[in-house]
Amino acid sequence: MSSSARSTVFFIGAAGLAVFLLWGLTGLPDFGNFRGDYGLLLNRVGVEQTSATNIVAAVTFDYRGFDTMAEEFILFAAVLGTALLLRAQREEEEEPAEDMAQDRRPPHDSDAVRELCLGLVAPAVLFGLYVVAHGHLSPGGGFQGGVVLATAPLLMYLAGEFAGLRTLSPRTVVELAEGTGAASYVGVGLVGLGTSVSFMKNFLPLGRAGDLLSSGTILILNFAVGLAVAAGFVLLLTEFLEQTLEVRRRSRA
Amino acid sequence: MTILQAVVLLLVAAAGTGVVVTRDPLNQAVGVSFFGLLLAILFLVFQAPDVSLSAIVVGALALPLMLLLALAKIRGGAE
Amino acid sequence: MNFLPYVVAAYLLVIGLYGMVTSRNLIHMVVCLSVVQSSTYVVLLSIGYRLDATAPIFVDIPVGTRAVDPIVQALTLTDVVIGVTVSALLLALAVQVHKRSGTLDPNGLSSLKG
């Protein structure tokens, strides 16, 4: 089908889709007039039932914790798929990064970039841990903090230290960390099953709302998700970086 | 609906158009980073700070990074 | 005026689809897919919004203050992170396609080779 014919078919279809979409969206309550009882009820009783002042985190990890477990498995599967797709194929081989450096122009090494990136690695790790740990008190949590944590090895790469990236996050440790993060999420759920009747029940003492050590399993699940997300992103980054730096076709060797 | 929300919504629509219309993926990486930032401001104005944090971290950090790495691999392999 | 968020969301969906259908580059297609995904985030958050309400974080305000819906925010925040991970998977697929057939143009990829 030629490109203009395809565009015409698309425009007809898109016009129909837009009409139905807008017609359906007009059936919703007016903007600003939210009428769902479940959400409003959770706003009123959430702090008292879970001792977490961030109701969104309480919903993600306690009231709807099972859905978050499934979403974490989506993340795990996507990282697994990417690692599988980007491994060296049969007709390629991996050469260590130092050998390839000889026939490459060295990147323009700016002292300012190097110093800035190296100086920012420790604050990035600290800030990521802060966002993960305070997820149940203020906006933040495992997902956001995990991605912030994953930028620390990336900063090392930007500073020109690929070897430092490897040392900070060796392949086996990162893969182990990701599996541990995903498994400990399920593990917490299973312990809940063991100590009471329901899977993923919040079984730890709840503490006082506003304390750092409060809200029971929400804190632990935040850390598990933060670990899994950070390790997953570092794995993705190193897979892509290895593709650019180390993998070459065998015929070139 | 406040004026601020209306303005940010229109800016998001404009940025989305800009991202789609840019055909070169390298220029699109910058465009999608800006789109992520505008989305984060929109989520903040809709009183959703958690989602806004996610959008900043993902749209301005992770997505442009993956795009640039994929492009680097493709350009590098075309030598 | 009250209808504007839904119009913007529908517009983002359609324009993202247009970008995907008329794309000449697989990587451009992946970015347009993320535009389509962001339209769903806008719809979800627009549904949960209440006028003159604040965020559902009760650290410094008393419980019972008028707040927006927390459930759609919980859905959207995990959705955003998962979306970028799936985009990374699609980009890895695009890299492999380029390695195998040397082109990123979807029109230039013939489906079944002999």
Number of strands of chain C: 0
The whole-angstrom Rg of chain A is: 24 Å
Q: Could you describe the largest sheet of chain A, including whether it forms a barrel?
A: 2 strands, antiparallel
Indicate the CATH topology of chain C.
Helix Hairpins
Mean pLDDT of chain A: 78
Overall mean pLDDT of chain C stands at 87
Textual characterization of the structure:
The complex is a heterotrimer of chains A (253), B (79) and C (114). Chain A has one domain (36-252). Chain A is globular and about 60 Å long. In chain A, α7 (142-158) runs antiparallel to α8, α7 (142-158) packs parallel to α10 and α9 runs antiparallel to α10 (217-245). Chain A has a two-stranded antiparallel sheet. Chain A has helices spanning 3-26, 37-50, 55-63, 65-86, 97-100, 111-133, 142-158, 162-168, 171-195, 217-245; strands spanning 92-94, 247-249. Chain A is mainly α and 253 residues long. Chain B has 79 residues and is an all-alpha fold. In chain B, α1 packs antiparallel against α2 and α2 packs antiparallel against α3. The radius of gyration of chain B is 15 Å and the shape is elongated. The mean pLDDT of chain B is 89. With 114 residues, chain C is mainly alpha-helical. Chain C has a single domain (4-105), classed as Helix Hairpins. Chain C is built from 3 helices and no strands. Chain C has helices at residues 4-21, 26-47, 70-101. In chain C, α1 (4-21) runs antiparallel to α2 and α2 packs antiparallel against α3 (70-101). The model of chain C has no long low-confidence stretch (mean pLDDT 87). The chains are: A mainly alpha (253), B mainly alpha (79), C mainly alpha (114). Chains in contact: A-B, A-C, B-C.
